[in-house]
Amino acid sequence: MNIKNYINGKFLPPIANGWIDNFNPAIGEVYGQIPNSTKEDVEKAVEAAEKAFPSWITTTLEERSKILSKIADLILEKLDFLAAAESKDNGKPISLAKAVDIPRAASNFQFFANAITQFSSEAYESVGLNAINFTLRQPLGIVGCISPWNLPLYLFTWKIAPAIAAGNCVIAKPSEITPMTAYLLGEICTEAGLPKGVLNIVHGLGTSTGQAIVEHPNIKAISFTGGTKTGAHIASIAAPMFKKLSLELGGKNPNIIFADCDYNKMLETTVRSSFANQGQICLCGSRIFVEETIYEKFKKDFIKKVSELKVGNPSETNTNIGALVSKQHLEKVKSYIDLAAQENTEILFGGNRVVVENSENGYYLQPTIIEVKDNKCRLNQEEIFGPVVTIMSFKTDEEALTLANDTKYGLSATLWTNNLNRTMQFAKQLHTGIVWVNTWMLRDLRTPFGGQKDSGIGREGGFEALRFFTEPKNICIKY
Ligand code: NAD
């Protein structure tokens, strides 16, 4: 099936007529093509957005809210269809796409449909000076939204929904590795009555299509989620152009387990936080640190639970671990497993490719647990972004905190303890944007979402996102 660009409400082939193969990772075969868009396609999208902006900026909040709600409703109506498409494109279990990815994409639109009706300009009375200030929050104009392959529709809509809710017109690019649900979103937006040109979806490679979006002088902001290296490159282009930037980048998140935790809840959640979506979630707890007194017990129980996970074709409902997203990514993850032998570490479970019946060429890998002795090893310092976790013991709170913070990344951390004092000490001293205590990936869309250090700059979610997609302008009136 050939995917097309969605520009000015129409589905268009790429101007230069270049195409890229799209793979089904469950069977390792090409099943369609996507536009290899060039600067010219991006230019056409910008022209459409510029034409749409004057009218979109004047739509009432009620009208915008209604359209966003309608998009949310249509996504839910097509839940099964979209989940199947996401699973086929990405390799994730269909059950996961149905329970998490697609419902969350709908929630993103519904959340910002509501949030925009509560977002308002601020006013400040300058008492004693006979003056009043009010701060307008005006849309930026045309903005760029660029997203990765791990949670395709989920992260794509997490950017688009606040951008259009705030009154901007959008040029969006999904990952070239998982373009399908972004393509289907175009149809949904038309059906929901989103005026043409408000959202334009341009497909293609990061280094050409993505780069053209970042470089375009009329695109005022870039909201990007993806790898740290890509984020740094984007910043090097966008920052000198004084574009607003939101960068949600990689992670190497610690999962810190104390003996006083609720053990069964911790064990069950740790299996999920390690291997959900084949470990391809930026929030996965890939470095597990366990208090020495329960280390041996945890090791035994964790290995047992992980050995029960079923690796299989993502379209089967009893599959826990589907296919990795691409051959290239499978090879990257495998190269880290191969490092284990050189790094004085031990593979406790997994480490091998899995051949799945009737899907022999798919990109399957066993969930893998590696015991490490030192947090400085590459396995503990570099983002693997696959079904691979390391485990290591610690003795004291101070040691656990030092280990947790000993990484260039700072996205999230998970802490398992029932000690309130320890919880507060860690909450204050962990160098991450998000700390989960006795839970993982519990999301309230009002909260600020993002990372510190090499995990990025800026925060998404709630009013933070609406502030990002608007320019504050202060007006001071003397009376
Ligand atoms: P990536 O950086 O390779 O690509 C992300 C997107 O950027 C894709 O759409 C790609 O085409 C585009 N791109 C690549 N080069 C570009 C360029 N020069 N200019 C403009 N766009 C360009 O990342 P990926 O491999 O798709 O995703 C995995 C990474 O994403 C991991 O590092 C993961 O941690 C990160 N991630 C972060 C979060 C978060 O919220 N912090 C969430 C999900 C994924």
UniProtKB/TrEMBL annotation:
What are the catalytic residues?
248
Instruction: Tell me which PROSITE patterns the record gives.
Output: ALDEHYDE_DEHYDR_CYS, ALDEHYDE_DEHYDR_GLU
Question: Aldehyde dehydrogenase domain: which residues?
Answer: 20-475
Query: Which keywords does the record carry?
Result: NAD, Oxidoreductase
Q: Which domain of life is it from?
A: Bacteria
One GO molecular-function entry: oxidoreductase activity, acting on the aldehyde or oxo group of donors, NAD or NADP as acceptor
Answer whether the UniProt record assigns the keyword Membrane to this protein.
no
Q: Which PANTHER family does this UniProt record tie to the protein?
A: 2-AMINOMUCONIC SEMIALDEHYDE DEHYDROGENASE
Per the similarity annotation, which family is this?
Answer: Belongs to the aldehyde dehydrogenase family.
Protein name, per record: 2-hydroxymuconic semialdehyde dehydrogenase
Task: Read off the lineage from the record.
Answer: Bacteria, Pseudomonadati, Bacteroidota, Flavobacteriia, Flavobacteriales
